């Protein structure tokens, strides 16, 4: 039986939704490993819409589920319908949508709240001892919900290669153990069944990000 993995998206586009290359890499690697992806997204308005040419917000309004359907080629379900009983694992790609639409991390950092639907899904998989894969910024969700967990967002010292390293410091303040790692590496928190990798938290070539996401997917499936 093929393993069924829920993939939760946060829109479409790095600055206001899911990072498309990370989401695509997750789907490609799940397919390569013979797993079945079930894609979900919350049916809610985006925090805002960003013009990805100018890098600035626009007056538009868009829906997270509708935008996520672009990545899923229309084969997507409302997150409210997710039933953990029929699924073997959960993966949440990164992108600013995680910090804007799935939580308020973008505006409130460690003092953020996580969407009730998203928190409910994460807690359900955790309670069922089913693995959760997180990449890029999405490990902040685990840091907020599961105190004492171990994750990685790459490095905790800011530099040209690691422009978002302050995220690790904020996670530590939540009581999370941050583990420094390279973009091609993953960290496995065996106790909490969390698998994380830094992806585009690192200023790295896209194929390195793709390979790191692949390792994350394989570890999630190994634990499932």
Structure, described:
This protein has 224 residues and is of the alpha/beta class. It has one domain (4-223): Rossmann fold (3-Layer(aba) Sandwich). It is 33% helix and 17% strand. The strands form three sheets. Strands 5-2-1-6-7-11-10 form a seven-stranded mixed sheet. It has a two-stranded antiparallel ribbon with strand order 3-4. A two-stranded parallel sheet has the order 8-9. A hairpin with a 4-residue loop joins strand 3 (49-51) and strand 4. It is globular, with a radius of gyration of 16 Å.
> How many separate domains?
1
Main sheet overview: 7 strands, mixed
Report the C-alpha radius of gyration, rounded: 16 Å
Low-confidence stretches: none
By CATH, the superfamily comes out as Class I glutamine amidotransferase (GATase) domain
In CATH terms, what is the architecture? 3-Layer(aba) Sandwich
Structural class: alpha/beta
Approximate strand percentage: 15-25%
Order of helices and strands: EHEEEHEEHHHEHEHEEEH
Provide a count of the helices: 8
- Name of the CATH class: Alpha Beta
| N→C terminal distance | 12 Å
Q: What is the number of E strands? A: 11
Q: Strands across the major sheet, in which order?
A: 5-2-1-6-7-11-10
Quick one: overall form? globular
User: What is the CATH topology descriptor?
Assistant: Rossmann fold
Helix content: 25-40%
Average residue-wise pLDDT = 97
Strands, helices and their partners?
Blueprint: E1 4-8, H1 20-32, E2 36-41, E3 49-51, E4 56-58, H2 64-71, E5 77-78, E6 89-92, H3 96-100, H4 105-108, H5 116-127, E7 132-135, H6 139-145, E8 150-151, H7 166-173, E9 177-178, E10 187-189, E11 194-197, H8 206-223
Parallel strand pairs: 1-2, 1-6, 2-5, 6-7, 7-11, 8-9
Antiparallel strand pairs: 3-4, 10-11
Helix pairs in contact: 1-8
InterPro entries: Class_I_gatase-like
Protein name: GAL3A protein
